[in-house]
Specification:
By secondary structure, the protein is of the alpha/beta class. It has 2 domains: about 210 residues, Spore Coat Polysaccharide Biosynthesis Protein SpsA, Chain A (Alpha-Beta Complex); about 80 residues. Strands 1, 2, 3, 4, 5, 6, 7, 8, 9 and 10 form a 10-stranded mixed β-sheet that branches. Helix 5 crosses helix 6, helix 6 runs parallel beside helix 7 and helix 7 packs parallel to helix 9. The N and C termini lie far apart (about 40 Å).
Length: about 300
C-alpha cells in the first residue's frame, strides 16, 4: 500500500484548520496516512498547541508568509509519502476520498496529478469543480466544468483527463514532483496550481479528475471574495502564467488584448462598483510584468500587510 501525505497550509485560521483535521479523522479509512500542517507565519503561532493536541500530525511553522505555493512546497519537502495530497485548510473530507484518488493513480501509470469533485460546503448539492477546460492562450481564459450547477448526477463516474486540477484538492505522485519540480513560488496566490499542472504535463504525465471522490470547500475564507490583494495577484498572475506557458504568437496577442480590452473594461467596472482602490492594483500588476522577469522573486506587494 502506497503512503499518502496530506499537506495543508494555515494562515490565521487555526479553528478552520482544526475542522479539516477533525473531518479527516472522522472519515478516513486509508491506513498509510501522514498529515502535515504548515503554519504560514500566522500572527498567533498555533504550532506549540497543535504539537500537544495532535501529536501524530507534523506541524511546521514558517517564519514568513510564503503564500499558497511556498507554504505547500514547505510541506512537500517534509512529506514522506508516495503520493502528496494538497488540500486547502477550508475543505472537509468525505468517506472514501483518499481511497478513490489513490486507486486511480495506482491503476493508471501516466496520471501524475488528480483532483476529486469539489462541492460547496455551504450548499452540499452545489458543484464547484468537476474538471477544467483547456486554456485559451489568446485570452488566458478557460472554464470550470460544473461550476455552480446543482448536482443531478450529470458528472457522476467521470474518471479521466482534465485540462487542470483544482488547487483546493489535488493529489500528486511524488515521482511526478521529482520530475517537474515544486510550484513556482513567485505566483504567491492564484494560478500557481494551473502553472504546476502545465509543468507536470510537460514531463509526460496527465492531469485527471475523479468525480467519484468528493471534497467540500468553504471557499474564500482566507482572502475574501473581493480584496486589493486578490485583484493584484489575479491580474498579475494571469499575465505571468501566460508569459510562462503560452506560445510566442499567442503571448503577443494576449498582451495586446489585455492592455486594450481588459484594462479599460476592469477600470470601468471598478468605477461602477466604487472599488476605486482596485484601480492602482490593476496598473501595479501590469507594471510588475513589464519590469520583472517571469522568474523574479520580487512579488511587488507588501506581504507583511496581509492580515
Amino acid at each position: 500500500m502506497k503512503k499518502v501525505s496530506v499537506v495543508t497550509v494555515n494562515f490565521n485560521q487555526p479553528a478552520v484548520t482544526e475542522e479539516l483535521l477533525s473531518s479527516i479523522k472522522k472519515t478516513n479509512t486509508y491506513a498509510r496516512l501522514e498529515i502535515i500542517v504548515v503554519d504560514n507565519a500566522s500572527k498567533i503561532n498555533p504550532v506549540p498547541g497543535w504539537l500537544v493536541k495532535y501529536p501524530d500530525i507534523k506541524s511546521i511553522r514558517s517564519d514568513a508568509n510564503m503564500g499558497f505555493a511556498g507554504g505547500n512546497n514547505l510541506g512537500i519537502k517534509q512529506a514522506t509519502g508516495d503520493y502528496i495530497f494538497l488540500v486547502n485548510n477550508d475543505t472537509e473530507f468525505t468517506p472514501g476520498l483518499i481511497d478513490g484518488l489513490v486507486d486511480t493513480l495506482e491503476t493508471f501509470d501516466d496520471v501524475g496529478i488528480i483532483s476529486p469533485m469539489i462541492k460547496y460546503y455551504s450548499d452540499k448539492g452545489l458543484i464547484q469543480y468537476a474538471g477544467y477546460t483547456p486554456m485559451d492562450y489568446y485570452t488566458c481564459r478557460n472554464s470550470c466544468i460544473g461550476l455552480r450547477q446543482k448536482d443531478q448526477g450529470q458528472f457522476n463516474h467521470i474518471i479521466g483527463p482534465t485540462a487542470y486540477c483544482h488547487g483546493a484538492a489535488m493529489m500528486i505522485k511524488k515521482e511526478a514532483i521529482d520530475k517537474a519540480g515544486l510550484m513556482a513560488e513567485n505566483f504567491f496566490l492564484y494560478y500557481e496550481e494551473v502553472d504546476w499542472c502545465e509543468m507536470i504535463k510537460r514531463t509526460g504525465y496527465q492531469a485527471w479528475v475523479n468525480t467519484d471522490a468528493l471534497i467540500y470547500h468553504k471557499e474564500s475564507i482566507s482572502v475574501g471574495k473581493k480584496s486589493k490583494l486578490k485583484e493584484y495577484f489575479m491580474n498579475r498572475n494571469r499575465i505571468l502564467f501566460t508569459r510562462r506557458n503560452a506560445p510566442a504568437h499567442k503571448k503577443i496577442f494576449f498582451f495586446i488584448y489585455f492592455l486594450l480590452l481588459v484594462v479599460p473594461r476592469n477600470v470601468l467596472a471598478y468605477i461602477k462598483n466604487k472599488n476605486y482602490a482596485f484601480i492602482p492594483m490593476l496598473f501595479k500588476a501590469v507594471w510588475w510584468n513589464l519590469t520583472h522577469s517571469k522568474n523574479s522573486s520580487n512579488l511587488g506587494y507588501p506581504i507583511n500587510t496581509i492580515a
